[in-house]
Design brief:
Blueprint: H1 2-20, H2 23-43, E1 47-49, E2 61-66, H3 73-89, E3 106-109, H4 116-133, H5 153-173
Antiparallel strand pairs: 1-2, 2-3
Length: about 170
């Protein structure tokens, strides 16, 4: 049944997490990504944390608001949506807009499945997109894309073996 595929996926995820060093390593990875955002927000003219109290911040689903957003809720939501749309159009952040019922802003996934270097590489794009959305003429060129880190030998091998493993699981289920 398809549910066995879900079980196998879950077991694979647990092996992956164990390979990183377990729960403490996963938490440390998320904390490092949050720290990258905190450092950027501290110097950013465009962003603040939705959770102003550091103790209330999530280290996985990090929510930001736009500083100097319009006081009108609809205009503020439109500005945040425009920023998220710019980031998506440039291919640097997908589905980064705040949830519909949440205050206007952005949300950045910083779970352990995301590399801290990728989160850090996103930070200049946030300011560029905010400036562009606010129509600041002096900040019109996007920051350069950073080369993505290649997969490790083991990760590439696992990725290459995935189709065969799926076929094995499907054969076992039949």
């Amino acid at each position: 049944t398809p549910s066995m595929l879900c079980v196998e996926d879950y077991l694979d995820a647990l092996k992956w997490a164990e390979g990183l060093g377990g729960l403490n390593a996963l938490i440390a990875k998320s904390d490092a990504s949050l720290a990258a955002i905190e450092a950027h927000v501290a110097a950013s003219p465009h962003y603040a944390f939705l959770a102003e109290d550091k103790a209330s911040r999530s280290n996985t689903s990090v929510c930001l608001t736009l500083k100097d957003a319009p006081a009108d809720a609809e205009a503020a939501a439109a500005l945040a949506k425009k920023v998220a749309d710019i980031l998506e159009k440039e291919g640097v952040a997908l589905d980064a807009g705040a949830y519909r019922d949440a205050p206007p802003g952005l949300r950045i996934w910083c779970g352990a499945t995301v590399e801290t270097s990728d989160v850090a590489a996103l930070m200049p794009w946030l300011d560029w997109a905010a400036a562009k959305a606010k129509a600041a003429p002096t900040e019109s060129s996007p920051p350069p894309l950073q080369a993505r880190k290649k997969l490790s030998y083991k990760d590439q091998r696992d990725y290459d073996l995935l189709p065969a493993r799926i076929e094995e699981i499907e054969a076992e289920m039949a």
